[in-house]
């Protein structure tokens, strides 16, 4: 990935912030740091799930949990 910040007229503009959301095994570290990095185990397992919002309409438990948290996500820890 290469980005040229030069615009018409020769002026160079650079970003104030870089947002990279390409997940585990990200390529962004090489771009930002100039060298690749590897993931380091934290000892935790991360699971993600995606489903249509319509599923929530049929689940009072999920609707209540989201309403109480005030955001459309929650974290669950198993021990």
Give the overall shape.
Answer: elongated
**How many extended strands?**
0
Q: Describe the sheet with the most strands.
A: none
Return the string of H and E elements: HHH
What does this structure look like?
The protein has helices at residues 28-33, 54-57, 60-69. It has 79 residues and is mostly helical.
Q: Which features does this protein show?
A:
0% strand, 79 residues, mainly alpha
Question: Could you provide a short overview of the structure?
Answer:
Helices cover about 25% and strands about 0% of the residues. It is mostly helical.
Q: What topology does this entry show?
A:
Blueprint: H1 28-33, H2 54-57, H3 60-69
């Amino acid at each position: 990935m290469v980005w040229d910040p030069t615009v018409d007229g020769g002026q160079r503009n650079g970003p104030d912030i870089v947002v990279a959301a390409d997940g585990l095994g990200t390529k962004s570290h090489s771009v930002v740091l100039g060298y690749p990095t590897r993931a380091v185990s934290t000892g935790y397992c991360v699971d993600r799930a995606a489903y249509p919002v319509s599923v929530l309409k049929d689940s009072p438990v999920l609707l209540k949990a989201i309403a109480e948290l005030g955001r459309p996500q929650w974290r669950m820890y198993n021990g």
